[in-house]
Amino acid sequence: MTTYERYERRRPQKQKEEQQQQRFLRPRNCRFCADSKIVIDYKNTELLQGLVYEDGKIRPRRQTGSCAKHQREVTQAVKRARHIALLPFVGEILR
Ligand SMILES: [Zn+2]
Description:
The protein has helices at residues 3-10, 16-25, 31-34, 45-49, 61-64, 68-83. By secondary structure, it is mainly alpha-helical. It binds zinc ion.
């Protein structure tokens, strides 16, 4: 079984239309570049929660639209937040 198949198995398959719409809705520009007021900080759990899956994994750049520079900051912040237990290493979806 490939990693991708496992990934698909964990997340229930959605309708094709819905999937395509989601792909379409992906932001084109990095929102952190667009708005300099947003600070990527490990204490800002509200922001970080939107950048990880429910199972705790960090969402990839292709989904969030962040640029490489800001994705690195996001990764660092999420890892720091996990270390001090503000974010989970493993979420509740996985059994
Ligand atoms: Zn950026």
